[in-house]
Amino acid sequence: MPNPGDRNADGSDSKWVSQALIKGPSAVFVQNGSPVTFTCEILPLSLQSGVFFAARPPVRWLHDGKEVSFELSGDNVSVETEHDDQRISSKLRLASVSWKDSGQYTCMQPSSKPAFAKLIVVEGMVLPDALKLNPLKGI
After folding, report:
1. For residue 121, what are the β-bridge partners?
2. Are strands 112-113 and 18-22 parallel, antiparallel or unpaired?
3. How many other C-beta atoms are found inside a 10 Å radius of the C-beta of residue 54?
4. CA 6 to CA 16: how far, in whole Å?
5. Among 34, 53, 62, 86, which is most exposed with the fewest C-beta within 10 angstroms?
6. Three-state secondary structure along the chain?
7. Per-residue pLDDT reduced to its tens digit, 53-112
8. Is 70 exceeded by the pLDDT of residue 11?
9. CA distances in angstroms from 2 to 11, 18, 52, 63, listed in the order given
10. pLDDT in the model for residue 17
11. What's the CATH code, domain 15-126?
């Protein structure tokens, strides 16, 4: 049973004050060496959550449960994040994917319900037209 002191400003019992959403499909197939961009939007679950956005907490990107490391990835990985009072938008860009980039990507932030997308890198084969579409690229 939730503790009454754990309620959100709007009176709800949820520990989340906002929701992350990665745009596009939940699984993306990309050819080895191609670029890919994941776009995550974090939106408040209630009007009172705007106070949370004013604080501008950092957006974290995880790959298979581990924080994405920019030092190890060099110029291959970049993140661009924009904040306003109504939403936070963060783009994770991989300039040239390889098999090691395959896996689950998570966009998260303190007190936000996380979002997930799976990246599947394919090598040495021609993709059917249906899989060549990469709606996350360039969003």
Report:
1. 30
2. parallel
3. 10
4. 11
5. 86
6. CCCHHHCCCCCCCCCCCEEEEECCCCEEEEECCCCEEEEEEEEECCHHHHHHHHCCCCCEEEECCEECCHHHHHHHEEEEEEECCCCEEEEEEECCCCHHHCEEEEEECCCEECEEEEEEEECCCCCCHHHHCCCCCCC
7. 566 778 999 999 999 976 666 778 999 999 887 789 999 999 999 999 999 999 998 888
8. no
9. 12, 19, 21, 31
10. 82
11. 2.60.40.10
Provide the b/e sequence for 2-13 (b: ≥16 CB within 10 Å).
eeeeeebeeeee
Tell me the backbone φ, ψ of residue 68, rounded to 5 degrees.
-65, 125
Q: Look at the chain and count its residues.
A: 139
- Apex 38 CA angle, 34 and 42, nearest 5: 175
pTM: 0.74
**Two tokens at 29?**
């197939």
